[in-house]
Design brief:
This protein has 78 residues and is an alpha+beta fold. The protein has one domain. The protein contains one helix and four strands; from the N terminus they run αββββ. The chain has one helix at 6-19, and strands at residues 29-35, 38-50, 56-66, 71-76. The protein has a four-stranded antiparallel beta sheet. A hairpin with a 4-residue loop joins β3 (56-66) and β4 (71-76). The protein is elongated and about 45 Å long. The model has no long low-confidence stretch (mean pLDDT 91).
């Protein structure tokens, strides 16, 4: 399977910068799958962040797009 196009990646990057700016500098892991004849791309962003009590935790953002780069679903961990 082929991965997302450059235009799709650019669209996702703009979405991340606008909605989850702390993940803008993270390079995503991209997986491609085929559901019912339609190809989707899942971008996974992971980053260690500091909590208020000086601990650290992993924040994860999953963003799913269609072949054209349209954002279909986003989930963000706390």
């Amino acid at each position: 399977m082929t991965g997302p196009t450059k235009e799709s990646k650019d669209r996702v990057q703009k979405y991340i910068e606008a909605h989850v700016p702390e993940m803008a500098s993270v390079r995503p892991r991209v997986t491609t799958s085929n559901h019912g004849g339609k190809r989707t791309h899942r971008f996974t962003y992971r980053r260690a962040l500091r909590s208020a009590d000086e601990g650290t935790f992993q924040q994860v953002v999953h963003l799913t797009t269609d072949e054209d780069g349209k954002v279909l679903k986003v989930s963000v961990s706390r």
